[in-house]
Specification:
- The complex is a heterodimer.
- By secondary structure, chain A is α+β, with helices and mostly antiparallel strands.
- Chain A has 2 domains: about 5-90, F0F1 ATP synthase delta/epsilon subunit, N-terminal (ATP Synthase, domain 1, Sandwich); about 95-130, no CATH class.
- Chain A has 2 helices and 9 strands.
- In chain A, helix 1 runs antiparallel to helix 2.
- In chain B, strands 3-2-1-4-5 form a 5-stranded mixed beta sheet, sandwiched between helices.
- Chain B is about 60% helix and about 15% strand.
- Chain B has 5 helices and 6 strands.
- Chain B has helices spanning about 5-60, 90-110, 120-130, 145-165, 220-300, and strands at about 75-80, 115-120, 135-140, 170-180, 185-195, 215.
- The interface between A and B is medium-sized, with 24 and 31 residues.
- Chain B: It comes from Actinocrinis puniceicyclus.
- Chain B: Keywords: ATP synthesis, Cell membrane, CF(1), Hydrogen ion transport, Ion transport, Membrane, Transport.
- Chain B: One of its GO terms (cellular component) is proton-transporting ATP synthase complex.
């Protein structure tokens, strides 16, 4: 079966690259699921959690969850590029730190930036699957 | 101990401690160059992908965009000068400042007003000392810039560009940074970041011909979202290159300072040895002279 070659690139580093069977991301128009053979698209991503179903040596591997703070997705001939100024794999996210940041942002400690900081922290927690619905 | 000898010894001690400092600076800079180069390399995939994306949208649609194309009237131009926060880096800071001033003179000659934006304490201090007003300054990250820093600068520049020269903003943005050519060579460069220019070319783009992308929500909106990121990615690259250059320039400056100190210590040691030898010779001749005088005196009295 054809596989997708995925490159997840943040501004200051390549976060992850490898093969996958499916990539799910949230674009401005709604969620898209990209599977092998998808038509070429390029769209703007919303700050969201993307899911990459990886393939290791032809067998399904881990399912990666990624916090994408905005960015773009480009798909062309089974190559998927996820570009984002800041992208973090769920496994890299420091949960206690994100929780603390969220609490501080909710308390308005970052002044004008509080709302944005709260959104970022919440996004991180959502990626790790620990967000509390509020 | 003679006054001269003491003086030489004191100088040797002071040069030695200076040498320790320059040597430490040299080692620190050497360690940081490698890291800075790695960061440049790590930021290239993003820059490459975003450049490709911008080219794809631009070649696919002939969407007009405020960031693309010359404005009919160019009233004001901005220069972003990237310098270091600290000195001790040889000609690194002066090279960049000189380049920026040449550019400013050129732009002023074309009848444009020049707004200065400065990164790094050294550049800011240069203008403050001369009473030249600055439209914006940032400092504290020149040796290890983060993407957030580039984004903050980019936002300020884009805001000013969008206002336009007639409303107190600018019509052009030039960036003076220092290109890291190699460990031994770094050169200050000028690049015009905005407005962007679309080049028509018949060459195939890097990485193959662009597929017929479907743009969501629309080509214009994708371009609108992409361009600011593209500018910021280029700025980030300029900051990283400059940081690597700063470390390389500092390493070289500190290496020659260390070498000079070694040479000075050698010279002073020679002089000090000579002075000590002269002192000993003088003491001996004084003793011999004294003993002779005593011997003569006692011979006469007998």
């Amino acid at each position: 079966m054809a596989e997708l070659e995925v490159a997840l690139v943040a501004a200051d580093r390549e976060v992850w690259s490898g093969t996958a069977s499916m990539v799910i991301a949230k674009t401005a128009d709604g969620d898209v699921g990209v599977m092998p053979g998808h038509q070429p698209i390029m769209s703007v991503l919303k700050p969201s959690v993307a899911v990459i179903k990886t393939v290791v040596d032809g067998a399904p591997g881990d399912v990666l969850r990624v916090a994408l703070h905005g960015g773009f997705i480009a798909v062309d001939e089974n190559r998927v590029s996820l570009l984002s100024e800041a992208a973090e794999l769920a496994s890299e996210i420091d949960v206690p730190r994100a929780e603390e940041a969220l609490a501080r942002a909710r308390a308005g400690e970052f002044d004008r930036d509080s709302e944005a900081a709260a959104e970022r922290a919440e996004l991180r927690l959502r990626a790790t699957g620990r967000a509390t619905a509020q | 101990m003679g006054a001269q000898l003491r003086d030489y010894r004191r100088r040797i001690a002071s040069v030695s401690s200076t040498k320790k400092i320059t040597r430490a600076q040299e080692l620190i800079a050497t360690a940081r160059i490698v890291k800075a180069q790695q960061r440049v390399a790590q930021s290239t995939p993003y820059a490459r992908e975003i450049t490709r994306a911008v080219s794809a949208v631009a070649s696919h649609s002939n969407a007009k965009h405020p960031l693309i194309g010359e404005r009919p009237r160019l009233l004001r131009a901005a220069i972003l000068l990237i310098t270091a926060d600290r000195g001790f880096a040889g000609a690194y800071n002066t090279g960049a400042i000189k380049q920026a001033e040449q550019l400013a003179a050129l732009l002023a000659g074309e009848g444009k007003q020049v707004d200065r934006y400065v990164v790094g304490r050294k550049g800011a201090a240069y203008y403050r000392f001369r009473g030249v007003p600055m439209a914006g300054e940032w400092s504290g990250f020149s040796d290890n810039p983060q993407y957030g820093d580039a984004a903050a600068i980019g936002d300020a520049l884009l805001e000013s560009f969008e206002k336009g020269g007639e409303n107190g903003g600018v019509d052009e943005i030039h960036v003076v940074s220092t290109l890291f050519v190699s460990m031994l060579s770094q050169s200050p460069v000028v690049a015009r970041f905005l407005p962007l220019e679309i080049e028509e070319t018949t060459e195939a783009p890097v990485g193959g011909v662009f597929p017929l992308y479907e743009f969501e929500p629309s080509p214009a909106e994708v371009l609108d979202a992409l361009l600011p990121h593209y500018i910021k990615a280029r700025l980030f690259n300029a900051l990283l290159q400059s940081a690597a250059s700063e470390h390389a320039a500092r390493r070289r400056a500190m290496k020659s300072a260390t070498d000079n100190a070694t040479e000075l210590i050698k010279q002073y040691t020679r002089l000090a040895n000579g002075a000590r030898q002269a002192e000993i010779t003088q003491e001996i001749s004084e003793i011999v002279g004294g003993a002779n005088a005593l011997a003569d005196a006692s011979a006469e009295s007998q």
